[in-house]
Design brief:
Number of domains of chain B: 2
Largest interface: A-B, 28 and 21 residues
Helix content of chain B: 55-70%
Structural class of chain A: alpha/beta
Distance between the termini of chain B: 56 Å
Strand order of the largest sheet of chain B: 1-2
Largest sheet of chain A: 6 strands, mixed
Number of strands of chain B: 2
Number of helices of chain B: 11
Oligomer: heterodimer
Largest sheet of chain B: 2 strands, antiparallel
Structural class of chain B: mainly alpha
Order of helices and strands of chain A: EEEHEEHEHHHEHEHEEHHHH
Shape of chain A: globular
CATH architecture of the largest domain in chain A: 3-Layer(aba) Sandwich
CATH class of the largest domain in chain A: Alpha Beta
Number of strands of chain A: 10
Radius of gyration of chain B: 23 Å
Helix content of chain A: 25-40%
Number of domains of chain A: 2
Strand content of chain A: 15-25%
């Protein structure tokens, strides 16, 4: 369980560049939740996730992981980083190893995994990301395509087996195929009890993956609740500059004629509702 | 992203010094820096120090920025001052265990410290009042006589301007990669010297690789906009010597002359 209590982050205090990145943020992320963080560029999303594993220390307030303050001296920060795995934007830019195996093994090795345990972790992470053949592990990570690189980079975090997986715009710049594989994996992980937090600009993704939405605007938390409640608050969505997905728009339009239409996440759900209704 | 101010970073203001011709500024600061080594008296340095303070005030720089510009040479400054202070033979004025402070030592230490500080102050004034583009344009123009011996002045100027342009970009990227690798369990500031050195490999390699990729992309982007290596280029900003430039040239010569003369008074 991850908890933020009244967290403030200020960049460059006492200079002309001073900006309040986060203002009085309190939130709790429980086990096995799937949380989407939304907001426009510069609203503090990236800052927020960097608080989760101690990359940024709050200027005020505390960050608790399983009831321990992660920024206190008694807590081993490496253990925190093992529990909270963050995949940053364009993670393929961090590659440096000669083989994919070494690249994926880098994180778990730093966390103290060795030999068979390490090997198993690496191969299962690669498999989760859709690389079924073990041969690929000996290739250079630089020989991969963009989407494959991204998946290897995500595998390098998954291999550490974090309790909470944090993804910063995981689908940005990925092709359809890669996205499908990633979404499939993410859904599977949620089913298996992993906690997921992801930042996104794509509302279709949010609709497909997240149960809960945290919306930031100008460093302040403006919404925290279920996805369906988020999309029914059109005023708020407009204010924070987010595009309503066509499925939601269609459903909201249909609601004028069919007042009992439930919240739908995909066009298929709408279609099956209509089918069922017409049959009646 | 966290913004940082670099040493001597250009800060735009409406000050007189920002309006000076960059060529004039470069030549003047360069000559006064060389000239510093010919001044033999502390009183001469005092005059130059006053002058540099005058320039800093004129540049509308913050005093804290000026002192921060001393940070890179702080170690050198302290080392030379202490060395001069304790190891100059002469009349002993103060004894501290086996260390003797001599009056000659105090004199030399002050002298060297002032010289180093002045070096840094004058270059600070230059970089704080001149943008990167102006600096390279000015530099290109100043070294243009070398064209006679077929020195590729334009290419060198372009290289310098690209290098300067990408310093903040690389810096930002380094921070980003550092955070990514930290999340993968690297501890950059823990462990033995060897371990620390090794932990920098996952930082430096991606940085280098990305820099090469970026260079490739930059080359393509430049060619797509009609850049041809070795072709003559026209300038967007024309540099012209104005009255105010002549005034500053005169002022610098006056100050330099005065600081040489001051010992004879």
């Amino acid at each position: 369980m991850l908890e933020l209590k009244n967290v403030f982050v200020t960049y460059d205090p006492n200079t002309i560049f001073m900006s309040n990145a986060l203002v009085d943020i309190s939130l709790v992320i429980k086990k096995n939740e799937s949380v989407g963080i939304v907001g426009r560029i510069g609203s503090g999303k990236s800052t927020l996730i960097q608080l989760f594993n101690g990359l940024i220390k709050p200027d005020n307030g505390i960050v608790l992981l399983d009831n321990d303050d992660i920024n206190s001296k008694q807590v081993d920060i490496r253990k925190v980083r093992k529990k909270v795995g963050i995949v940053f934007q364009y993670p393929e830019e961090q590659f440096f190893a000669e083989t994919i195996f070494a690249e994926v093994a880098f994180g778990p090795k730093n966390m103290g995994m060795r030999e068979t345990e390490l090997k198993n972790a690496v191969f299962s992470a690669l498999k989760d990301m859709g690389f079924s053949s073990e041969k690929i592990a000996q290739r250079s990570p630089f020989s991969l395509s963009g989407g494959e690189k991204r998946r290897v980079a995500i595998a390098s975090i998954i291999a550490m087996n974090p309790d909470i997986l944090v993804l910063d715009e995981p689908m940005a710049g990925m092709d359809f195929n890669g996205k499908e594989k990633l979404i499939k994996y993410i859904k599977n992980e949620i089913k298996n009890g992993r906690t997921l937090v992801f930042v996104t600009h794509n509302m279709e993704e949010l609709l497909e993956i997240a149960d809960r939405v945290i919306a930031l605007d100008d460093g302040k938390k403006v919404f925290d609740g279920r996805v369906r409640d988020f999309f029914s608050d059109e005023k708020l969505i407009e204010k924070i500059g987010i595009d309503i997905p066509s499925v939601v728009r269609m459903r909201n339009r249909l609601k004028k004629h069919y007042s009992d239409i439930p919240f739908c996440r995909t066009p298929i759900e709408i279609a099956s509702y209509l089918k069922k209704r017409n049959r009646l | 992203m966290r913004k940082r101010s670099f040493f001597g970073q250009y800060n735009f203001s409406d000050s007189l010094l920002c309006k000076l011709d960059p060529r004039v500024k470069i030549v003047l600061v360069f000559s006064i820096v060389v000239f510093l080594f010919f001044v033999k008296t502390i009183s001469g340095y005092m005059l130059l120090l006053l002058f540099s303070i005058f320039l800093i005030l004129l540049a509308k720089s913050k005093i804290s920025d000026v002192f921060r510009s001393l940070a890179p040479i702080l170690f050198l400054l302290l080392f030379t001052v202490l060395f001069q202070l304790f190891f100059t033979p002469g009349k002993v004025v103060y004894s501290f265990f086996f260390l003797n402070v001599t009056s000659e030592g105090i004199y030399l230490a002050t002298y060297i410290a002032m010289r180093l500080m002045l070096l840094s102050f004058f270059t600070f004034v230059l970089t704080a009042t001149t943008s990167n583009i102006e600096l390279t344009d000015g530099f290109e123009s100043v070294i243009s006589p070398l064209k006679i011996v077929r020195f590729p002045t334009e290419d060198v100027a372009l290289m310098i301007s690209i290098a300067m342009r990408f310093v903040p970009v690389l810096f930002e990227e380094a921070t980003r990669i550092m955070k990514a690798q930290t999340s993968r369990g690297v501890l950059f500031n823990k462990g033995s010297l060897m371990q620390r050195a090794r932990s920098f490999l996952p930082l430096l390699l991606p940085l280098l690789l990305n820099a090469f990729n970026r260079a490739d992309q930059l080359a393509i982007a430049m060619e797509a906009r009609g850049f041809v290596v070795g072709k003559a280029r026209t300038k967007y900003r024309e540099m012209r010597i104005k009255k105010i430039d002549l005034f500053f040239i005169f002022l610098f010569i006056l100050i330099m002359a005065a600081s040489i003369m001051v010992k004879r008074i």
